[in-house]
Amino acid sequence: MWLLSAVIAASLAVALRYCLYTPLPAAIRQQWKLLLLDDIIKTVIRLAHVMEWLGLGHHVKATRGYSKGLEGTLKKLTAEPGAGYLTVSDATFGGVPVRVCQPPMAGDSRLRRGLLYIHGGGWAYGSAKDGAYDQGSRKISKELHMVVVSVDYRLYPECCFPTPYMDCLTAAKHFLSPEVLAEYSVDPQRVAVSGDSAGGNLAAALAQQIAMDDNMSVKFSVQALIYPILQALDFNTPSYQQNRDMAILNRPVTVKFWLQYLGGDLSLKPHLLANRHSSSAAPELRARLDWTALLDPEFRKDYFPVHGEGHHRMEGILDEIPGLLDVRAAPLLAGPEVLAKCPRAYVMTCEYDVLRDDGLMYARRLGDAGVAVTLEHYRDGFHGCFSLTMWPFTFDVGLRAFAAYVRWLHDNL
């Protein structure tokens, strides 16, 4: 029933899209496929809101149910990467659920590389055990002969910050313990942390925390961040303005994700969109995400800062939502002394993504702090493309981005 209703609703959405078609930027290839995917996502979310209105549960949980059903259908039509080669098991690391993908040991019993991966989904969606994340972990494990641990941290609405961060930190410390690394035959000098979008946020925060923790005898060797979301003080950077209505992830949805994650009142969304919350932040903190200084001219283009000052609703907002200034939630706000201790980094950004400038600014600040950084920018990329490598939503830019990521890990870990 869920599949039939979703198909009917998606068909109506596609028909409406045809009548009201607005082309995407010309640089994006396979545009109709992207628009179709965007329509399906929006239709599923609308259906979930209807279910909530009918008293059938929270819309986020309903959306997960629709998505899980669709993914199950597609899974039956596609082979799992590494099937018959990898050992895939579910475990708990410090009480946190994880999925572990292991290749067979080499004949010479050499230690293997390790990767802690954190999925995206706006801190509300996604799972290490389903869909593109499970498929991606299997592919990485097989291609790099690597032990991949993917974290199933708790999500909104069941919880909010700092619980997801603490789940990931607990799993990371467990994995990095010498005993556990030895159990999985992982070389302690070759362990990476990585994630995409909200997972990139958590991965960056973990890289900072572990780097600063003198009690950790093993630390991450590298961090690989895929279009990470890194700050919530400026929702009018050039990329937020340029891509405000972009498919897959637009500007209003991003602000909603932040408010949900930080436990804020959703009625504050218009004020955050206007940057009315940021003027009372300390100048030192605002300088750490000053895109007029941190972005190259080609990305600044002809955009101007939006300060949004002088609104009574915003007095005390930073006290009401302290996570806005917490570096565990907003890693771009970390000081240079913290960044200097971080492991070398890979940062992937996409031109047509509201989060583009977060990644560009972080790469610049890491480099300024003396960290070796590889910046991979896709001029035809859009948010989510890294995970779009499986039928029926296979995108050329996704295949290229995933292959470049694997090559970097191969060469740098």
Through-space gap between termini: 47 Å
Strand order of the largest sheet: 1-2-4-3-5-6-7-8
Strand fraction equals: 15-25%
Q: Fraction of residues in helices? A: 40-55%
Estimated radius of gyration: 21 Å
The low-confidence parts are: 1-10, 15-20
Helical segment count: 17
Enter the CATH topology name of the largest domain: Rossmann fold
Estimated structural class: alpha/beta
Which class of the largest domain in CATH terms?
A: Alpha Beta
- The dominant shape is globular
| Domains, number | 2
The H/E string reads HHHEEEHEHHEHEHHHHHHHHEHEEEH
The major β-sheet equals: 8 strands, mixed
Number of E-state strands: 10
CATH architecture of the largest domain: 3-Layer(aba) Sandwich
What does this molecule look like?
By secondary structure, the chain is α/β, with parallel strands linked by helices. It folds into 2 domains: 2-77, no CATH class; 81-413, Rossmann fold (3-Layer(aba) Sandwich). 44% of the residues lie in helices and 16% in strands. The strands form 2 sheets. The chain has an 8-stranded mixed sheet with strand order 1-2-4-3-5-6-7-8, sandwiched between helices. Strand 5 (186-196), helix 7 and strand 6 form a beta-alpha-beta unit. Helix 1 packs across helix 2 and helix 5 crosses helix 7 (198-212). The longest helix has 23 residues, at 31-53. It is globular and about 60 Å long. The N and C termini lie far apart (47 Å). The model is unreliable at 1-10 and 15-20 (pLDDT under 50).
Please write out the topology.
Elements: H1 2-19, H2 31-53, H3 59-77, E1 87-93, E2 96-102, E3 112-118, H4 131-144, E4 146-151, H5 163-176, H6 178-183, E5 186-196, H7 198-212, E6 222-226, H8 238-242, H9 251-261, H10 269-273, H11 283-287, H12 291-294, H13 297-300, H14 317-320, H15 336-339, E7 344-352, H16 356-368, E8 373-382, E9 389-390, E10 393-394, H17 396-412
Parallel strand pairs: 3-4, 3-5, 5-6, 6-7, 7-8
Antiparallel strand pairs: 1-2, 2-4, 9-10
